[in-house]
Amino acid sequence: MANRENQQLGAGLPLCRLSVAPMMDWTDRHCRFFHRLLSRRTLLYTEMVTTGALVHGDVPRHLRFNAEEHPVALQLGGSEPADLAHCARLGEEWGYDEINLNCGCPSERVQRGAFGACLMAEPKLVADCVKAMVDVVDVPVTVKHRIGIDKVERYEFVRDFVGTVSEAGCRTFIVHARNAWLQGLSPKQNREVPPLRYALVHRLKHDFPDLRFSINGGIADNTEVHSQLRLLDGVMIGREAYHNPWWLAEWDSGFFGEAQRELTREDVEAQMCDYMAREAAEQGTPWSNIARHMLGLRNGLPGARRWRQVWSDHKLKGLSPHAVMALAHAIDPARESGQVPQGLASVPS
């Protein structure tokens, strides 16, 4: 294919200084639409989609996304080169800007499928998977992985993994700077208990200067992002981006050099209401399925708790999203005046 030589040389890759991590049950297309309203430049990742879901399941349900989401990357979970090649081709046909292979998830369910973090023990297999995908798509193929598995903490382990996989055509690695403990820890504990070791990721960049490295894990403020970007090519933010999404509104100006936009939380909420109405009309999607992703939008502001309660109240699901927004913003004045607007009686105090 025309762009494959450039891809393998590392040219023409999308600028990914900041990205939002793939998060199961969270970064669906509604969440990504919301995040795109906040940042135009940040690279957004899908939830992990398994090859089995695409080979044997409903492809449109798993791959459909909104045009506004670009740039957007599809993360795949699998370990069979032929299946991954098939799914990568599907991802490219559906318009994704990048195909990412999950070599970092430590959950038991993923391990039973023989993919995720356990693949780090088989770098040659990962290389075969990457090559199979690189051979059939023009978009970049990337790998997300840990710095080690279980109690293997030698730098040489992750160094040799990256070296082997890069020879197959992967030029960009997203590194969660913790080990994955495959036994004894839950996925949540695996995000918190194994110690962060950023220095190993920095060392990878030193040893492989022609490759691109983004770092993931425990990064939660602008100061740390800037610190990492002085040493690496990109930073991936996970749960902090989800729980405190307004932070994303600073990223385009702070990290991509764009002019600061005049954007308010109310602007974003109103645009989400328009989107919810569109989704309800076109897909029959209840607004509550979408609103859950924006519940952190007003974190830190007076009245945020009551605002979240309104948007979380399923007893209001018969109302239009714009009506729910009006109720959410009517709460504080109503409580001060002692008057509760019709439809708010079910909202707990």
TrEMBL record:
PANTHER family assigned to the protein according to its UniProt record, in alphabetical order: FMN-LINKED OXIDOREDUCTASES SUPERFAMILY PROTEIN
Role description: Catalyzes the synthesis of 5,6-dihydrouridine (D), a modified base found in the D-loop of most tRNAs, via the reduction of the C5-C6 double bond in target uridines. Specifically modifies U20 and U20a in tRNAs.
Keyword set, alphabetical order: Flavoprotein, FMN, NADP, Oxidoreductase, RNA-binding, tRNA processing, tRNA-binding
Cofactor: FMN
Site annotation Interacts with tRNA: residues: N102, K188, R191, R305, R308
Family of this protein: Belongs to the Dus family. DusA subfamily.
Entry EC no(s): 1.3.1.91
Matches recorded under Pfam families: Dus
Protein's name in the database: tRNA-dihydrouridine(20/20a) synthase
SUPFAM superfamilies per record: FMN-linked oxidoreductases
Residues noted as binding FMN in the record, renumbered to the chain: P22, M23, M24, Q75, K144, H176, N216, G217, G218, G238, R239
Keyword Cytoplasm: no
